Amino acid sequence: MITLSSDFGSPYPAAMKGVVLQRTDARLVDVSHAFPRQDVRAAAFWLREILPYFPPATHLVVVDPGVGTDRAAVAIEAGEHVLVGPDNGVLLPAARVLAGDAEAATSDADDAIRVHEISYENAASSTFHGRDVFAPTAAEIHESWAADGTVPDAVDGVGDVTPTDEFVDLDLPEPAIEGDAVRGEVLVVDDFGNAITNVPGYVLEGLDEVHVDGRAVPAVETFAEVPEGQWLATVGSHGNVELDVNRGRGDEAFGVEAGDSVRIEL
Amino acid sequence: MITLSSDFGSPYPAAMKGVVLQRTDARLVDVSHAFPRQDVRAAAFWLREILPYFPPATHLVVVDPGVGTDRAAVAIEAGEHVLVGPDNGVLLPAARVLAGDAEAATSDADDAIRVHEISYENAASSTFHGRDVFAPTAAEIHESWAADGTVPDAVDGVGDVTPTDEFVDLDLPEPAIEGDAVRGEVLVVDDFGNAITNVPGYVLEGLDEVHVDGRAVPAVETFAEVPEGQWLATVGSHGNVELDVNRGRGDEAFGVEAGDSVRIEL
Amino acid sequence: MITLSSDFGSPYPAAMKGVVLQRTDARLVDVSHAFPRQDVRAAAFWLREILPYFPPATHLVVVDPGVGTDRAAVAIEAGEHVLVGPDNGVLLPAARVLAGDAEAATSDADDAIRVHEISYENAASSTFHGRDVFAPTAAEIHESWAADGTVPDAVDGVGDVTPTDEFVDLDLPEPAIEGDAVRGEVLVVDDFGNAITNVPGYVLEGLDEVHVDGRAVPAVETFAEVPEGQWLATVGSHGNVELDVNRGRGDEAFGVEAGDSVRIEL
Question: Are strands B28-32 and C159-164 parallel, antiparallel or unpaired?
């Protein structure tokens, strides 16, 4: 099974699928091609939340603002999974969870993952690495991995695959305790307008109300506990605090977007 | 085969697919993840129109404004199909058609469908039942149904599955005859801006023109019969009267949205 | 393998998939259902760029402003591929490339493709040929083609399939040399806002700057060579000149949309 993730919209992902299907009969599953454009951190968050629900698979990821520069390409072995994508950190948070390091999921201990650099001196284009570098690499790694659990030494038409200890890392930001408050950050806004923060959900335990940037907000378990149009703080399916509006857009009501700081008084 | 339908946009459906694929190798087919948000009736309409074109399948449906409340979860046997989703009526119009009750498709006679309640006391989250309740249930029901045509007694990690006669029903609204006019309702607006009503198409038979809310409108078989930008009434692929504009948006031209009443003088 | 392409958005493509899966177990791959609405030329461009990356397949294409009129339906044998869709030219540029005529890809020599007309006198609806004509036809042609490399004489529930020399053609427009300038045309704007022209990329070779409609613009290999927000001309993954903005929308910066003429001074 190969999953596909990108910020390409449509129809570019189809070219990647064609290339993959030239080299393997694997099942293809789209994770998303609507990730926020060129937002490596948002994609890293979503992949960390979603890929662990999959059975063993090869995960092809292309959110790649550095395409055309000399940024490297990597494949990462993580438990029973392999991830393939640009060397910009987008794969790391998910890789650490897939490798079983779910509690910490930080860069402190990386015994569980193995990184390979993919040279791509034979690839056709400098502008569409999704199609010309990552798609053929994911297909060939999938075939090799499914056959005998190894990553190949080279990918035909792309280049060599070499183990490496050097790669670009990315840790999603940690919230900071400030007395009886938490200073966190909006990691991503989902399609519903829910502003998903990096603040762990347990801080809301036992609370009926918090103050978000000074404004009193009900802390609830479900949207249905407040009237339509009412803002709220709740714990999303990912386990983090979300700032939402019942049947409305939390990002607009709270005036926040991805990357903004938020202070939650408990 | 398992079909998936929701109002989740992207990327949440991918988590559901991962969970399903942990439990079955079935083919997955997306019906839509762009149903109008939390609009149970619109989803019920689309499912009734589209699912009957599929071969025997398990249909996973999550349009669920009551998630997090104590609304029940149900599975419905309907002919050679099974539907799985929230107990809010969204499955019923499609279930009745799939069970062969295509003519009436109302709640008057339900000998042909069998409803099961899915308890979910073992499910992980209260906010993402699509992933934690409906996805594993659809996967296990699919496996059981494909093997021997039965619905299982319980779903691992979710809860018991019990036959029931009590469920939330939903009949799509019926149009009313008013002399030589029909009072109907816009059920849904599609991506083209076509306003699809509940008025059966046969009322347009033999007519060149109707009056919609007092305005004279050509009644045509195809858009191409009127100039670009011209409004029209026609019979859509679903068999109902649509209010459209040739290469434009019918909803804007007629000033209607889902739920609005329309009066068509014949 | 059957690919699906349309301008239908959601959820209409699902009805096509259901119909296809009633008749075949083939793998289904979406190319796009977000092609610019009723823009035959844009779809023809995208199909020509993307379909050649696929292994041998049947390609179901529905971009069909003439649905409901008496326009014909066609199937085209092209190399190891078959294309099925409306007789409006949308299939031709891709067909010529798939048949191996990649260099010219014009209508001058068509020995390599074989066109069949699909009569559809038995089809159910006059408004949804995607579901009632093209989907069953693609499924049955796929089955026949995969079995013995032939196109069937008739499609059950649709009508006869007959070889023909008459079909609607479509050549994508060619750019014109005007002294040391090229007059081209914007073929399509992609989801990123990149304005893709019909001007071949080699005209930028060795140049640092061009003038587009009189405005000086850097000619670069990658977006990263210019600051964020800066306009640029580059060669896209399709080999043509694109007018772009680094992390912005080229169509808005250059004030162009599909069909507009552009003059590039070299």
Answer: unpaired
